[in-house]
User: Fold these one by one.
Assistant:
Number 1:
Amino acid sequence: MSRKKIIAANWKMNKTSTEAKAFMQAFKTELGAFDGAEAVIVPSFVSIATVATEIAGAKNIQVGAQNVYWEKSGAFTAEISTDMLKDLGVTYVVIGHSERRQFFGETNETVNKRIKAALAAGLRPIFCIGETLTEREAGRLVEVITSQVKEGLANITGEEITELVLAYEPVWAIGTGKVATPEQAQEVHALIRKTLAEMYGEKLAGQLRIQYGGSVKAANAKELLHQEDIDGALVGGASLDPREFALIVKAAVK
Ligand code: PGA
């Protein structure tokens, strides 16, 4: 089963629109004529329009959002709807990032609501899961990962999730420079795929893409990206530099 690699740049709360534009111009130059993998730029909400303009006509580059609210519209001050994102040309939306879970009260239940709303609107969720160091050291890795997958995808059918992407991001590897070894990452990716197979059958589980995230950089990307069950990367810090990010995207192609 061939799964096209997907490399996403999660800029988090970095870059103004002016900086986003400069990044995109440099990034397109660095990437050149590129094929064989998908690159997704995920800027802050306020820079989505700028990035969307810059990728117009670029075949393998898409724009994503860092979150989305589940209600269609209404009195929800400061929230962003699926229609607002789609209108700007957004195709992917990151949901359940560990920073949202840690600092902004995101739970498996709210993650589930966002995933449902995104899928219903035809947006592709990048559904993030991952254990903390405390959970891993307490021997709770399997339990935490399987419950995040099952609860995040509760009451969502196999037909609905064909375009969904998962991102395994061990919390202890995010922004710490402590990358999971390719073997550690592969082991959890295989566990995620097994859980998906139990829920949706082997065929669909074999088609779904699972990214690794956590201190990915050009120097470690190739080894991670060529593990059997690793289908891409969600990149934070190293995605802020156009050259470094272009090298990571290129590492996805054999
Ligand atoms: P990092 O972040 O690459 O800076 O570790 C990854 C992420 O949080 O998506």
Note: The two ends are 16 Å apart (CA to CA).
Number 2:
Amino acid sequence: MIPADTAEAQILELVMPLDSRRDVETVSLPEAAGRVLSASVVSPTDFPHWDNSAMDGYAVRYDDIAQASATQPIELAVIEDIPAGQPPQQSVAAGQAARIFTGAMMPPGADTVIMQEETERRGDRVQILATSRPRAFVRERGSYQRAGGRVLSVGSVVTATEVAILAAVQRSQVEVYRQPRIAILSTGNELVAPEDELQPGQIVDSNQYALAALVRQMGAIPVCLGIVPDDPAALKTAISQAIAEADMVLSSGGVSVGDYDYVDQILGDLGATLHIRSVAVKPGKPLTVATIKGASAPQLYFGLPGNPVSALVSFWRFVAPAIRKLSGRGGNWAAPFLLARSRQDLKAGGKRETYLWGQLHTTPSGLEFSLAPGSHSSGNLINLAGTQALAVVPIGATAIAAGSLVRVLWVGAAWPSG
Ligand code: AMP
Ligand code: MG
């Protein structure tokens, strides 16, 4: 049994990310959300594109209005109106002003904007009732970004903010990594599909569907290969097919020490290298991690434990970091831990890093963790509903008192890429 952090680091070492030249495709801007950029994006223009006004008001020459006040207003001649989207037609000379609106181009000659509230309009003249700073309310050309500079990095996940930037730099087509394909298979003679009639002793295959949902949530494509019986020949065929069709393989069940647990043996027969057999975590101790020669690149194989909670916990803790790296994402791939105050006493055996599931609450004094009521058995998936986080009781600790801070692994649907 190796510690969880060691296993995670070892797994990340083994992952070969998608290739930024080969494993790419071009998608339209609206389709880019949720995808990972396979190339950096450079701005073709300055941002702002030209000096423009941050206010509705009057574009003036600072020297003209430096002494203006409510008691001694300065009067200027208004030479034109400049709405947003329309270039100025004239230069502002001494003693002149131009009516200007938010986002409109500054006219030549003017260097400062006086907001409307500090003026009084009289026909074609305007009284300036207060002085200002030089260049006040002028958004200067290139002050946000210079042309030729990088606005988005390769490996960025495209969210709403990146979509806005891509639109602003006029990328209607976006180069992204293809979505990795993750094969999923369930092993066990006892398993039946949800639509089948349950016979005594049988168990419904929930892992296939849960894992597929997690894979999809991460922006990858689940390739569901169904239920495989505990039969070495059938397993060998299914695992070979999985390897041929995907970039990474997840199986659940069959990695314990029972008489029907054949996965490790089959992987050996197929020439895989087994790196991890078990991890000091609860739930989720039996975990097989292997590499095997795939169609194009070496592939990672995860043999997840069969118990429904163990399979999910193993995914959150070990598979999700691997998919993040595989996808071409930059930044931090590791499992995202936070600190939260526990609302209940948390108990554990002390021998393995123990994960207890529950919900996170945002409060004015910070995050709080509430433990799911009911059994925290690895076979009980019923009280997993609404799980957002796993509280961690470290090896060596048998209790964490209510009110103290606890490390929690965030497992909610969306999380920043880090
Ligand atoms: P195993 O790891 O194969 O020994 O399975 C451990 C436990 O998890 C057994 O009770 C299995 O019936 C159950 N199990 C295995 N695979 C699945 C699955 N795909 N969905 C739900 N339960 C499963
Ligand atoms: Mg089994």
Note: The mean pLDDT is 96.
